[in-house]
Design goal:
heterodimer; A: alpha/beta; DNA polymerase, domain 1; Rossmann fold; 2 domains; 10-stranded mixed beta sheet; 14 strands; disordered C terminus; B: alpha/beta; 41% helix; elongated
């Protein structure tokens, strides 16, 4: 029934149906006062219903010739994608396989075993996003949502110090251009990381709902990092409810990414899965969740080196690249020369 | 904040009443439903429901602060810059001061390696007066395996801090600050955790030790691939308590041998499949058989994600090592140590740098050497 799709309350829907208005075309030529009389409701409510009902009454698929509101041609999209900004990971190899870094307007999921460097990468991105554009950053702020309590502010300071040193090192080379605004201080980096501590899944959902408003007020936020998306959803949960809540959250995050042109990075844990007669490691939250993110990067050990692997991406080739976690943060693997494997 | 009442959120009275009438009382109730479910339940339009949700969400969302203010807060409010020194110089340096406040630190290792010794020493350190580098506070020691030895505690104290323990009455006072709990089952453990929460939040107790976490589940985790983790609740509870009270929590974990059907290692190669040919896997398995025994931490990967710092205690060819296996800041270092009458002491403070994955494997040689040498002696006789 077409009226069932209108975003109005159930009681009003009921009234519409019982008064015989089952299809939207019947509503198209009505005046509000007429409808109000028929349904025995106030004129305001009637007006509300009519606002939601499409005006020309023709909602069938035959109207594809018209330009549909909100649609975009692939050509325009291509143009937009070329302008896409990316945030460097500080490891040239990972940047290479990612086409320059973590892309804005996308939701990227990063998962891996404990101790592989997920939080490290999250912190590194929160710092890097603040770099001026010529250094591979966006000159923006970061929102860091900590659900696990693993955010170590001392470590952020360490990474920020390294970052600021690197910047002043490059600045001395190209001194002439940026003489005016020499380097950011480590404290400035910390000032631009907005930290939220989330203690329950309800808070997590609430915060993601609220982010829309918050970012409207803080337009310079260019990355949202959730470390980790999983934590509060791993404690005894009804699976159907969990899938529903996670799905809703993923949609909202994608909307945020598109609306404010920012990068959303979700860190995920791994879990064991029983498949084909043996235990295997896989990212947590199950199969339906794995559809929720646009890009998925898996961090893993290969021998004695840490590798990042693009597990899923609509636009990038599957590839892996080594990286290292150093005192300065995420960097290129030292022993590596040319070891990027393309598959 | 999740259980905040909707009626107290300053929504228009009429809306609040509708929600109450549908038994949607708390923010948790409302946010656990999708917008469309809510529309059906409370009989309102989409715009109204969305605006109510936005309102509730804003009320429930935690406040934000900048990383900078977080840092300043830490520096101002905490003694010893938020770390409990272990008294082991090299380890303290690697950990930037010691066991950090506000997070869970885990000790993993085979039986008899010295986990309990480490815990005893830490308990003493926390109870010492501040002028001796302690926290001058009470300690709660949850002794699941009944291994706590008060005699050994006093011995370690007398050996490590003779100047304090030889003062009359001080030994009694120090030992009097350490409260030992011995829960017999997981249920009892759960109960005592809830009881001590208040004590911890009042900040009279400044260290919580659980020795060991794995023993709690050993009786209950055996039946196959049980879906629900019996410790799920405890993990998040401990994490939040650590953080709210800003105290260090130290937990020990046992090891178990890796069974062949769990032949994955912590390297994420198996599910990727593409990345490594089958050959690599075979090699892995062969490697496993080459070790005297291949061990993994008893509590699974879910738990491993939850701990912020993991210290591995192990033996390699008869020598004991303590390794910083997981830490957000520290480099991968291993320190040789020995156990003396004063507890654990490091043999050198510089540490050995460990490359790659080696840092997270647990070595333990069997008793073959002893047993072997025994038989030799037997032959000589």
């Amino acid at each position: 029934m077409e009226v069932g799709r209108l975003p109005i309350s159930a009681a009003l829907k009921g009234k519409l149906v019982s008064a015989g208005y089952t299809s939207l075309s019947l509503l198209s030529s009505l005046s509000p006062s007429h409808l109000a009389r028929d349904l025995n409701i106030s004129e305001n409510e009637a007006l509300d219903i009519l606002k939601h009902a499409p005006h020309d009454g023709q909602v069938d698929t035959s109207s594809v010739h018209h330009i549909i509101n909100g649609a975009q041609t692939a050509w325009d999209m291509l143009h937009e994608e070329e302008l896409l900004t990316r945030i460097t990971t500080s490891s040239v190899d990972i940047d290479n396989i990612l086409g320059g870094g973590i892309s804005c307007r996308d939701v990227t999921e990063i998962g891996g075993v404990p101790g592989i460097g997920k939080t490290q990468l999250g912190i590194q991105l929160a710092v890097n996003v603040q770099l001026p554009i010529h250094c591979g950053g966006l000159g923006g702020k970061a929102i860091y949502i900590d659900t696990e309590g693993s955010f170590m502010v001392e470590r952020v300071l360490q990474i920020a110090e390294a970052c600021s040193n690197d910047m002043s090192a490059t600045n001395t080379v190209s001194q002439d251009v940026h003489a005016g605004k020499v380097g950011m201080q480590p404290r400035d980096f910390l000032e631009n990381i907005l930290y939220f501590r989330v203690c329950s899944y309800t808070e997590q959902i609430a915060l993601i709902n609220y982010l829309d408003k918050f970012i409207s007020e803080h337009r310079d936020v260019k990355i949202v990092i959730i470390d980790s998306i999983t934590f509060h959803f791993r404690q005894d949960f009804d699976m159907a409810l969990r899938t529903r809540l996670l799905g809703g959250m993923a949609l909202k995050l994608m909307k945020l990414a598109k609306k404010f042109c920012l990068a959303v990075v979700l860190l995920n844990q791994v879990t064991t899965k029983y498949a084909e007669g043996s235990f295997q490691l896989t990212l947590a939250l199950g199969d339906s969740w794995s559809h929720a993110c646009t890009n998925r990067i898996i961090l893993y050990w290969n021998g004695n080196e840490r590798y990042a692997y693009i597990d899923k991406s609509p636009s990038l080739r599957s590839a892996s690249a080594p990286y290292a976690v150093t005192a300065k943060g995420i960097r290129n693997s030292v022993s590596n020369c040319k070891r990027i494997k393309l598959m | 904040m999740a259980n905040q009442l909707i009626s107290e959120m300053g929504l228009p009275k009429s809306i609040a009443n509708v929600f109450a009438a549908r038994n949607i009382r708390t923010a948790k109730d409302a946010l656990s439903l999708t917008e469309f479910d809510l529309m059906e339940l409370v009989d309102m339009g989409l715009t109204e429901v969305t605006s109510v949700l936005v309102h509730i969400s804003e009320r429930v969302s935690p406040p934000h602060q900048t990383a900078r203010s977080l840092l300043q807060q830490r520096i101002q409010n905490e003694q010893l810059a938020g770390h409990l020194p272990t008294g082991l110089k090299g380890l303290d340096e690697a950990l930037f001061g010691g066991i950090p406040f506000g997070v869970i630190t885990e000790l993993v290792g085979p039986a008899g390696i010295g986990k309990t010794q480490f815990c005893l020493k830490l308990s003493l350190l926390a109870s010492l007066p501040t002028r001796h580098g302690g926290l001058d506070a009470q300690v709660i020691y949850i002794d699941v395996e009944s291994k706590f030895s008060s005699k050994r505690l006093i011995e370690i104290g007398a050996q490590s801090f003779p100047e304090i323990f030889h003062m009359s009455g001080m030994a009694q006072e120090m030992a009097g600050r350490i409260l030992v709990l011995r829960p017999a089952s997981l249920a009892e453990f759960t109960e005592s955790l809830q009881q001590i929460k208040i004590l911890l939040l009042e900040r009279r107790v400044k260290l919580l030790v659980i020795d060991s976490m794995a023993a709690l589940t050993s009786g209950e985790l055996e039946h196959g691939a049980s879906k629900i983790n019996p410790l799920g609740w405890h993990i998040s509870f401990l994490k939040s308590v650590a953080e709210l009270s800003r105290i260090p929590i130290v937990v020990t974990n046992q090891v178990k041998s890796q069974s062949s059907d769990e032949a994955w290692r912590y390297n994420f190669q198996e599910p990727l499949g593409v990345l490594c040919a089958v050959g690599t896997r075979r090699q892995d398995l062969e490697d496993t058989s080459k070790y005297d025994s291949h061990l993994i931490a008893a509590l699974g990967i879910h738990w491993a994600h939850a701990v912020t710092i993991r210290l591995i205690l192990e033996t390699i060819s008869g020598e004991r090592f303590i390794k910083v296996a997981k830490s957000p800041m520290s480099p991968a270092l291993a320190f040789p140590f020995s156990i003396t009458s004063s507890g654990i002491s490091l043999l050198n403070d510089d540490g050995i740098e460990v490359v790659g994955q080696e840092i997270s494997t647990i070595h333990c040689h069997g008793h073959s050497e002893i047993i072997h040498s025994d038989t030799l002696q037997f032959h000589r006789q």
